[in-house]
Design the sequence.
Protein backbone atom coordinates (compact mmCIF):
# COMPACT_ATOMS: atom_id res chain seq x y z
CA UNK A 1 0.00 0.00 0.00
CA UNK A 2 1.35 3.38 -0.97
CA UNK A 3 0.92 5.98 1.77
CA UNK A 4 2.27 8.86 -0.25
CA UNK A 5 -0.61 8.59 -2.76
CA UNK A 6 -3.07 8.74 0.13
CA UNK A 7 -1.49 11.89 1.53
CA UNK A 8 -1.57 13.55 -1.87
CA UNK A 9 -5.28 12.81 -2.21
CA UNK A 10 -6.07 14.13 1.28
CA UNK A 11 -4.10 17.26 0.58
CA UNK A 12 -6.14 17.76 -2.57
CA UNK A 13 -9.41 17.51 -0.62
CA UNK A 14 -8.18 19.67 2.22
CA UNK A 15 -7.34 22.49 -0.18
CA UNK A 16 -10.83 22.48 -1.71
CA UNK A 17 -12.70 22.67 1.59
CA UNK A 18 -14.74 25.80 2.07
CA UNK A 19 -13.16 28.09 4.58
CA UNK A 20 -15.45 29.15 7.38
CA UNK A 21 -17.06 32.49 6.75
CA UNK A 22 -15.78 35.40 8.72
CA UNK A 23 -18.11 36.64 11.40
CA UNK A 24 -20.06 39.64 10.19
CA UNK A 25 -19.17 42.83 11.90
CA UNK A 26 -21.88 44.80 13.64
CA UNK A 27 -23.19 47.75 11.76
CA UNK A 28 -25.20 50.70 12.96
CA UNK A 29 -28.39 49.52 11.22
CA UNK A 30 -31.40 48.03 12.94
CA UNK A 31 -34.72 46.65 11.77
CA UNK A 32 -37.80 48.82 12.03
CA UNK A 33 -41.50 48.08 11.63
CA UNK A 34 -43.99 50.63 10.45
CA UNK A 35 -47.70 49.95 10.66
CA UNK A 36 -49.86 51.72 8.10
CA UNK A 37 -52.85 53.79 9.10
CA UNK A 38 -55.08 51.05 7.66
CA UNK A 39 -53.35 48.52 9.92
CA UNK A 40 -53.86 50.76 12.95
CA UNK A 41 -57.54 51.24 12.09
CA UNK A 42 -57.88 47.48 11.66
CA UNK A 43 -56.39 46.89 15.12
CA UNK A 44 -58.80 49.38 16.69
CA UNK A 45 -61.77 47.77 14.94
CA UNK A 46 -60.62 44.30 15.97
CA UNK A 47 -60.40 45.38 19.62
CA UNK A 48 -63.86 46.95 19.44
CA UNK A 49 -65.38 43.77 17.99
CA UNK A 50 -63.61 41.62 20.58
CA UNK A 51 -65.02 43.79 23.36
CA UNK A 52 -68.59 43.77 22.02
CA UNK A 53 -71.03 41.16 23.30
CA UNK A 54 -71.94 38.28 20.98
CA UNK A 55 -75.63 38.93 21.34
CA UNK A 56 -77.55 42.19 21.64
CA UNK A 57 -79.76 41.55 24.64
CA UNK A 58 -81.75 44.74 24.05
CA UNK A 59 -83.04 43.28 20.76
CA UNK A 60 -83.23 39.61 21.68
CA UNK A 61 -84.94 39.76 25.08
CA UNK A 62 -88.29 41.20 23.88
CA UNK A 63 -88.54 38.59 21.13
CA UNK A 64 -87.51 35.82 23.50
CA UNK A 65 -90.16 36.89 26.02
CA UNK A 66 -92.83 37.05 23.30
CA UNK A 67 -91.94 33.53 22.09
CA UNK A 68 -92.06 32.16 25.65
CA UNK A 69 -95.44 33.82 26.28
CA UNK A 70 -96.82 32.58 22.96
CA UNK A 71 -97.51 36.13 21.78
CA UNK A 72 -94.86 36.30 19.07
CA UNK A 73 -96.60 36.56 15.72
CA UNK A 74 -95.08 36.51 12.27
CA UNK A 75 -97.16 37.47 9.28
CA UNK A 76 -97.48 34.74 6.64
CA UNK A 77 -96.72 37.12 3.78
CA UNK A 78 -93.55 38.41 5.50
CA UNK A 79 -92.39 34.84 6.05
CA UNK A 80 -93.11 33.90 2.41
CA UNK A 81 -91.29 36.99 1.13
CA UNK A 82 -88.17 36.22 3.18
CA UNK A 83 -88.29 32.56 2.13
CA UNK A 84 -88.51 33.46 -1.57
CA UNK A 85 -85.77 36.06 -1.18
CA UNK A 86 -83.44 33.47 0.40
CA UNK A 87 -84.32 30.85 -2.23
CA UNK A 88 -83.68 33.33 -5.06
CA UNK A 89 -80.26 34.30 -3.64
CA UNK A 90 -79.24 30.63 -3.47
CA UNK A 91 -80.21 29.96 -7.09
CA UNK A 92 -78.39 33.03 -8.26
Sequence:
Amino acid sequence: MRIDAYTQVTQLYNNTKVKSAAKPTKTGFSDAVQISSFGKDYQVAKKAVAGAPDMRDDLVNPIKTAVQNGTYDVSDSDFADKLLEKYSSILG
User: Anything to note?
Assistant: Residues 76-91 form the longest helix (16 residues).
